[in-house]
Design goal:
about 425 residues, two-stranded antiparallel sheet, alpha/beta, single chain
């Protein structure tokens, strides 16, 4: 069945005269039923190969709560810096929608700020007001029509906010350098010389920020998203609270691990209270600060394992394990699959929590081995999807899998 939706009922273009004449064309949404989601397993390409009848785990469906994926490939959140005033745009529709037409099981939209000052840059997406819902829903509707699932990463950049997008040069008025915040404030907590000096969040600020995460989750549900991922990684605000490098508060949000984790746990509970119980919540964390070479306390895998247990009790269903980002003093040896051991550690020590592995996973065999060796339940792919949006179909070829193409692309199989 074809669904053609004209939002302009008289099927004529609206004309608005401002300084220049602008023509607003009728918006059309065109969907074709996909009998099976692109990226679904259909069988082996060559049935004569050894073990051809064994379905690679990465191409087996995956279910958590009411979320069922056609395969276990996740498009990791990746900032595109292609927004004005937080609104999702046609760029995001094409960018994210392409992964759905090419078979990704779950697509996670980029770090999306829950408050304006929580953006990494002025060009970031946002979900702090209801007006931002329709643009996001348009993307969700398209992705769902292809058979994929869609989520969004709820974020606050904290002391890493209000910086220049790496390819964009906006006027000074676009930034909020005097309203950059963190768990601790002052020049000692400036991330580096390219970032701004943060002010310390007050208890009222913290309460308002927690509420903003919950309100953002409610908007994500209204937009029809299947899941939300709380961003607690990469040196952004939640990670800043967790790590003693960036959190030296002396109140109930600082000091002990229990206190430093308090902000995260309150965010999780607020998001859970504002997002349907049948829909899963993801949490992305950094497993380590990578500063073992320096003296002094930092954030490490042992603490990550502990908070994994706590967030499971608070309402997190899926734990997405990344690393780094909280200090320029970090030393990272970024080799293939370098973050997978962190995910494996969490999965072994918190067996009732679903785990996502990420980090230079660049091919189908590598992704499948991570799952077959029980190091994670899902694999997230980032930059490899940018290099090749048809990553899933390439992985299928590598694994001798005949994967479903979208109806419109089926002629490209041969």
């Amino acid at each position: 069945m074809v669904v053609l939706n004209n939002t302009n009922n008289n099927n004529t273009a609206d004309t608005t005269v401002e300084k220049n004449t602008r023509i607003q064309y009728p918006q059309e949404r065109y969907f074709i039923d996909q009998p099976k989601a692109p990226g679904s397993y259909l069988g082996p390409i060559d049935a004569t190969k050894p073990n051809a009848d064994k379905i690679p785990l990465v191409f087996q469906p995956y279910t958590v709560k009411d979320l069922t994926l056609a395969n276990r490939f996740v498009v990791a959140p990746m900032c595109m810096f292609s927004s004005t005033d937080g609104f999702f745009t046609d760029y995001h529709l094409v960018h994210l929608g392409s992964f759905a037409t090419l078979g990704a099981g779950l697509i996670l939209a980029e770090a999306t700020a829950v408050v304006p000052e929580g953006r990494i840059s002025p060009a970031d997406t946002g979900i702090w007001k209801d007006e931002q819902i329709p643009g996001l829903k348009r993307i969700a509707d398209f992705i769902h029509a292809q058979g994929s699932k869609f989520g969004i990463q709820l974020a606050h950049a904290g002391r890493k906010a209000s910086v220049k997008a790496f390819y964009s040069d906006l006027p000074e008025s676009a930034y909020w350098k005097n309203n950059v915040v963190g768990p601790s404030g002052g020049a000692d907590f400036q991330w580096d010389s390219k970032h701004h000096v943060p002010r310390e969040l007050s208890l009222q600020d913290i309460e308002e920020t927690i509420k903003a995460f919950g309100a953002a989750a409610a908007r994500a549900h209204k937009a029809g998203l299947d899941t939300v991922e709380i961003h607690g990684a990469h040196g952004y605000l939640i990670h800043q609270f967790l790590s003693p490098i960036s959190n030296q508060r002396t109140d109930k949000y600082g000091g002990s691990l229990e206190n430093r984790a308090r902000f995260l746990l309150e965010v999780v509970r607020e998001v859970r209270a504002n997002f349907p119980a049948e829909k899963p919540i993801f949490l992305r964390v950094s497993a380590t600060d990578y500063i073992e070479h320096l003296d002094g306390p930092s954030w490490e895998i042992e603490q990550t394992v502990q908070i994994a247990k706590w967030v499971k009790e608070a309402g997190v269903d899926v734990f997405h394990v990344s690393s780094g980002g909280n200090t320029p003093k970090q030393l990272i040896n970024a080799t293939f699959g370098y973050q997978v051991p962190f995910a494996e550690r969490v999965k072994k020590e918190v067996p009732d929590l679903e785990v996502v592995a990420v980090g230079l996973i660049t091919g189908g065999k590598q992704a499948n081995e991570v799952l077959e060796e029980e190091k994670a339940d899902l694999v997230a792919i980032g930059r490899a999807f940018l290099r090749s949006p048809n990553f899933v179909l390439n992985a299928a070829q590598e694994l001798n899998v005949k994967a479903k193409f979208s109806a419109q692309y089926e002629r490209g199989r041969m």
